[in-house]
UniProtKB/TrEMBL annotation, chain A:
This is Serine/threonine-protein phosphatase 2A 55 kDa regulatory subunit B. Keywords: Repeat, WD repeat. InterPro entries: PP2A_PR55, PP2A_PR55_CS, WD40/YVTN_repeat-like_dom_sf, WD40_repeat_dom_sf, WD40_rpt. PROSITE patterns: PR55_1, PR55_2. The gene is PPP2R2A. Coiled coil: none annotated.
TrEMBL record, chain B:
GO terms for biological process: cell division. Residues 1-23, 98-119 are annotated as: Disordered. GO terms for cellular component: nucleus. Keywords: Cell cycle, Cell division. It comes from the Eukaryota. This is Cell division cycle-associated protein 4 isoform X2. It comes from Camelus ferus. Pfam families: SERTA (PF06031). The gene is CDCA4. Residues 21-68 form the SERTA domain.
Amino acid sequence: MFLKFSLRSVFNGAGGGNDIQWCFSQVKGAVDDDVAEADIISTVEFNHSGELLATGDKGGRVVIFQQEQENKIQSHSRGEYNVYSTFQSHEPEFDYLKSLEIEEKINKIRWLPQKNAAQFLLSTNDKTIKLWKISERDKRPEGYNLKEEDGRYRDPTTVTTLRVPVFRPMDLMVEASPRRIFANAHTYHINSISINSDYETYLSADDLRINLWHLEITDRSFNIVDIKPANMEELTEVITAAEFHPNSCNTFVYSSSKGTIRLCDMRASALCDRHSKLFEEPEDPSNRSFFSEIISSISDVKFSHSGRYMMTRDYLSVKIWDLNMENRPVETYQVHEYLRSKLCSLYENDCIFDKFECCWNGSDRSHENVTTSQSHPF
Amino acid sequence: MMFARGLKRKCTEDEEAAPSYSRQRQSLLDMSLVKLQLCHALAEPSLCRSVLIANTVRQIQEEMTQDGAWRGAAPQTTGRAPLDRLVSTDLLCRSVRDGAGDGPAAPAPRGLQSSIWEGDGPLEDKGSFQKSLDQILETLESNTPLSVDELFSDVDSSYCSLDAVLTGVVGGAQSGQDGLEALAAMAAPAPSTSCKSDLGELDHVVGILVET
């Protein structure tokens, strides 16, 4: 496993790339050349408070890191993250109908908002979403009247007094248990999951369809977007990411491989094939090449906390969109423009198909860019 | 429309001339077709990637049609074997000819071999390229139809089947050579102006793209 934590840094609204300062505040794992394939991290996600960081890897494991409680004396320094829990979320499966393996690689993790002492998260591979409960145990009952410490029942004739078990502290144990398994709803590979602001439903998106689930119900989901053409020969565009609006539980967006974002309102119809808004920036003719479409493909879309803006990530840039303006973004940041002259090589070695993620920081006034590449440990 | 400049041409000769735009474009087309057909894993290939590559192929083909370049190309005038050309191009568009001046005196197969093994090809992993080559040949030799729509079909992913992969790898060492020579022999007649010839299944794919 190979994980680096970067100190938060900002893109200022008016400024550009020159204001960025990146450095690593913590590095986890071996900086080896021999990284096992299964250890390659495929997704990362902080929980809402930032205290926990979940990582998913190609081997189907989830590792959760927890931030140390900040030292009261040195309150300005950020606490370190240490391993909190590790569990096997998904196993490899075999689709006998197609004679193909279903990879156990974790594509996405999303945390549920915390309601009680336990934490819940959704993790998904290409086909199956699972709801995991992560709970702490730091006490155990001791002093049973009828049982020995190892669980065997005592001989009743030796019981002469009544004794009530009491809880005594023990070493912290973190347990993860699967609570729901949402399976068999996706023909294509799941690329996104997003929890609704109602905290009861969530969506899962694959290349051609988006389904709506209820967190309590595993044997049924509603299809809300379907862009599969009747004739697959006509397929030219796929869904690349989807997210619910942070405040409006009826609104969601999905991005495509052609660089468009569609905003849909579930109140308009049961099947949201017609968008309410279409966000697309006209192509810059001076930059046109055979790779234009590939690099315009959006790999991630995230709403700001306010819900007024959304951030999209394509191969070379990050764009900020105002939901009220569909014809172009309000800000564009070139993340690695120097790659533009190398697109052919990147196409050749498939790196041009790597997908990057992005996220907002807490205040929305500025944003961070956290990127994980599809195939390389980050 | 100019090409991104990232494409490097590695030659055994010292010549530093940049390849012409149409040759770069052809090379990109060939590379894309190979990418569409290969699968390196037992798991399903990414649909997003396949769609993006197929769209790129269509774009190239449209431009070539507009340019009038979409026909069986005339025999190479320069007589050099550009080392970044892939097997499919040679089979489709050129008659058997003497390749680069170096190497043993055998027709197209030698030219192809030299392009695969000599120099620092743009491919980082020659081993996987040889395996890829075997897979193409296996596909060509078998009668499994290969069309763009099959790439996206829900049920039939036979082009990715374990059998095809293993047969191609195992039989590759022996059948590779035979396959090359057999196909080179078929290519001996002057290439027709339409790519809808009986050269092989790769033509079938190309033919579909032309008609699209």
